[in-house]
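PROTEIN DESIGN WORKSHEET
SECTION A - STRUCTURE
LENGTH: 615
TOKENS:
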């Protein structure tokens, strides 16, 4: 595989986007080119297993998620304004760095600070490749991936470039020259010739950047690709090696494993769950395959690609491409043959953990999230825990999963039903529940959708859960929703949150009335990096709730509660607090039901949130 172009750009902040195309362009739903299991079933191949789900979770956890940030991302309105057309699905992507959040939907990107302020954009995605020339600069076809490289303090952004008229295809990859995503980029065009590299996913692993593609036109199947990371970080020409992933099973969405740990051990990994066996006798054989791509960049002739694990999975059902329900009757795609981006690996002293998830079907016709944690203690990969998250019969799909350095697992997804508009939710498992296969964190609403998607079934095709490198504890999640029932009018949200075990919530609930600072206590030993105040929990509440806030250094802090007339009704904190994460309980027994405002202030810092009191 050849690198055909390279360049180092000027600062992104100084680039001028190309002009918006003139005249109306019809909205466009990207077709689903992948396997249609219903058509296979109609041909006489029954791919629906009758086995019950032995790892189904039907209970709601008692832990809680504290949401720290929650702001609007890019939307289809931005596609229309920047590019002159609307498109679904958004392929919502984003990652968090020490000071920024970079989001990229299918055709436009935007860079935020971590308080949600837009620093630049939305801008067309191919602005990352301005000055490179060729197909990467000339086209803006999407399927983006955004990764923050913790080990190098760099940003890795990519999309594909498509020229169907000349049957010419490429991957476009840009690596920032510093930790500032607004700065300059090393730009690369990786030529695929006549092969259309669809559904590209990238990962970071040791001395390699990794990638999978689902191939069409000039080839079929999937590629596993490794690229010389050190060369790309230095803006040099690089070597890329590619091989076809052997498939004993029907599967579309194998992934590169992506590690947040700079010193992850072993060769780059690839893999995913099987949809069903390639032979009739293997129809119900469900496994998770893991492959290893060994490469020595000083001597690539020794490179090898081999399967290192074939882990049996508890039975699951798949059920066709479009069966997720909405109130308006338009079914949505769930892509249940795809292992969902990203497959996340964490390196610990005693083992490596691999997190993965995909959608399955439960009867009656309910989409659910099957998730896994595999572990390698040095003798090979094996199942550590797994579960199917479906505490009721509403549809949950298009999920993303990640683990922080403390062993907490966060899962974010879309949720909808015939009575519920597609909305954004999170759950998780705190480290004290590790190995149980239970998401012990109560399902938490990030953002309520207030409309259905019309005119197209495409949803996703993926979302993104990531971990904040500043504390390696806080999770960030981005995905789509609709504000009103319409076609081609998606919105996106970006949210940051932490997970807490039930013990913390119980301690607050039993704490009694507290409008005074004596109720404030330090709740975590790790020192935060910025002032912040979380969404109160529970919310709505009656009559007691808890507010968690973070102080990066000893400082005077005030937390006050106001009614909607701006009248102060309670002072929760008004004193010097040590660096750390603190909570304070608020007893509103003497107040009337309604919406209240609480404000945290410290020096020049001020942050405001709302809470709802029920009676």
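SECTION B - SEQUENCE
RESIDUE ASSIGNMENT:
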């Amino acid at each position: 595989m050849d690198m055909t172009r390279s360049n180092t750009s000027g600062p992104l902040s100084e680039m001028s986007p190309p002009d918006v195309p003139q005249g109306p362009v019809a909205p466009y739903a990207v077709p689903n080119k992948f396997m249609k299991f219903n058509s296979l079933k109609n041909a006489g191949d029954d791919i629906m297993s009758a086995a019950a789900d032995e790892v189904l979770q039907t209970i709601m956890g008692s832990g809680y998620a504290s949401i720290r940030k929650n702001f609007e991302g890019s939307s289809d309105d931005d596609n229309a304004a920047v590019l002159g057309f609307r498109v679904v699905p958004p392929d919502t992507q984003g990652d968090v760095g020490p000071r920024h959040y970079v989001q990229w939907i299918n055709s436009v990107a935007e860079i935020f600070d971590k308080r949600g302020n837009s620093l630049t954009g939305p801008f067309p995605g191919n602005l990352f490749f301005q000055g490179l020339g060729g197909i990467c600069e000339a086209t803006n076809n999407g399927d983006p991936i955004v990764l923050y490289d913790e080990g190098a303090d760099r940003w890795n952004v990519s999309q594909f470039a498509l020229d169907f008229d000349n049957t010419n295809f490429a991957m476009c990859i840009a690596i920032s020259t510093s930790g500032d995503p607004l700065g300059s980029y090393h730009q690369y065009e990786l030529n695929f010739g006549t092969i259309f590299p669809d559904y590209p996913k990238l990962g970071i692993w040791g001395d390699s950047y990794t990638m999978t593609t689902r191939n069409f036109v000039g080839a079929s199947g999937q590629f596993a690709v490794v690229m010389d990371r050190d060369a790309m970080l230095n803006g040099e020409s690089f070597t890329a090696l590619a091989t076809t992933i052997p498939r004993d099973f029907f599967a579309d969405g194998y992934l590169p494993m992506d590690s947040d740990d700079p010193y992850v051990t072993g060769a780059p990994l690839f893999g995913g769950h099987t949809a069903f066996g390639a032979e009739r006798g293997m129809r119900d054989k469900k496994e998770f395959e893991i492959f290893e791509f060994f490469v020595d960049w000083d001597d690539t002739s020794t490179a090898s690609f081999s399967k290192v694990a074939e882990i049996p999975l508890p039975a699951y059902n798949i059920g066709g491409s479009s069966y997720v329900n909405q109130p308006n009757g338009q079914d949505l795609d769930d892509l249940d043959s795809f292992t969902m981006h990203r497959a996340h690996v964490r390196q610990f002293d005693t083992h490596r953990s691999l997190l993965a998830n995909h959608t399955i079907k439960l009867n009656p016709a309910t989409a659910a999230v099957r998730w896994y944690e595999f572990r390698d203690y040095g003798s090979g990969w094996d199942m550590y825990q797994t579960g199917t998250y479906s505490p009721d019969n509403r549809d949950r799909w298009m999920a993303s999963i990640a683990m922080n350095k403390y062993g907490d697992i966060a899962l974010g997804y879309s949720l909808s039903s015939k009575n519920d508009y597609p909305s954004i939710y999170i759950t998780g498992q705190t480290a004290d529940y590790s190995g149980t296969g239970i998401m012990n964190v109560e399902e938490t609403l990030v953002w309520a959708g207030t409309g259905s998607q019309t005119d197209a079934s495409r949803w996703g095709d993926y979302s993104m859960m990531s971990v904040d490198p500043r504390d390696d504890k806080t999770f960030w999640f981005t995905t789509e929703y609709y504000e009103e029932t319409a076609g081609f009018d998606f919105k996106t949200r970006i949210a940051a949150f932490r997970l807490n075990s039930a013990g913390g919530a119980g301690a607050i609930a039993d704490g009694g009335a507290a409008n005074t600072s004596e109720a404030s206590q330090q709740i975590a030993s790790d020192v935060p990096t910025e002032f912040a105040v979380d969404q109160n929990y529970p919310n709505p509440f009656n009559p007691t709730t808890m507010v968690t806030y973070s102080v990066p250094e000893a400082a005077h802090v005030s937390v006050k509660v106001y009614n909607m007339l701006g009248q102060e009704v309670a002072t929760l904190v008004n004193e010097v607090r040590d660096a750390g994460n603190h909570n304070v309980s608020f007893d509103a027994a003497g107040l009337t039901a309604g919406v209240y405002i609480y404000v945290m202030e410290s020096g020049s810092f001020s942050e405001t949130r709302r809470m709802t009191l029920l009676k």
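SECTION C - NOTES
The CA atoms of residues 387 and 438 lie 6 Å apart.
Residues 76-83 form the longest helix (8 residues).
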